[in-house]
Amino acid sequence: MNVRCVAGLVLWCLFWLVNSATGQNGSYVINRGDVLDIVVMEHPEFSLSGITVLPDGYIQYPGIGGIKAAGMSSEALTASVEKSVEKYVVNPVVSIYIRKIQNQMLNVLGYVNKPGQFQVFEGVDLLSALSMAGGIKNIKKGKQIVIVRADQSMEEIRLKDYMNPKHRVQKLPVLYAGDTVYVKEPADINWSKFSFFSTMLVAIGTILNFMR
User: Fold this and answer.
1) pLDDT over 80 (residue 126)
2) What is the dihedral of CA 159, 180, 103, 26, to 10 degrees?
3) 194 partner at 20 to 30 Å CA-CA among 79, 99, 149, 212?
4) Which of 65-69, 70-74, 149-153, 174-178 has the lowest mean pLDDT?
5) Is 125 left (phi over 0), alpha (psi -120 to 50) or beta?
6) Could you tell me which Pfam families the record lists for this protein (predicted)?
7) Chosen CATH of 24-100 out of 3.30.1950.10, 3.40.1060.10, 3.30.450.40, 3.40.190.10
8) Cα 177 from Cα 175, distance rounded (Å)
C-alpha cells in the first residue's frame, strides 16, 4: 500500500470520526443544559433569548408548550419550531443560535476505583457510569449510592436493587451530563470504640441498678 493510499485512508477515518461526533449532517447536536437564542423574523413576540434546554430535553416555549431540543441539530430544531409557530405566523422564518454549550461531564465520586469526571454526550445507565470509574472498590461493601441531578434534585438508592438482573426491582437510573454519582464509603466497624462504649454502657447500667 503506497503513501497516497495510507494518507487517503487516514483522512477518511478522520472525516468519519468528525461526522460521528457532530451528527450525520455535520451539525452540532443540542444537549441538555445548552442555552439557545431563537429568532422568529419580524415577530419578536415569538423570539426567545437565553432559553435553556431542560434536563428532560425540552425547551418551554411560552404560548406553545414544550418542544424537544436535546439530541437534535439546530436545523432539525429550527424545522420543529417553525412547525409549532406556523399556527400563529404565516410562513415563519426561524433562526436558532447556540449561545452557550453545557459542559458535557458526568461526575462519579466516592467509593470507586477511579473517581473523576467523564465526558458523555447522551444518557448512560448507572452501571455504565460506574464502569467508567473502574467500578466499585468492593462490590460487597458499596451498598448506598446518591445521585445528584444537574437541577440539584437528589435521590438515594440501594445498589442491590439493581445489580442482579433476575431480581432487579427497579429500572436502572439514566444519567446525563451535569449529574453526579456518589458511592458512599462503607461504614467499617471500629471494634475498639465499640468495645469501649459497650463497657461504658455496662458500667452505667451497674451504677443505675446500685442506686435503686
Assistant:
1) yes
2) 10
3) 212
4) 149-153
5) beta
6) Poly_export
7) 3.30.1950.10
8) 7
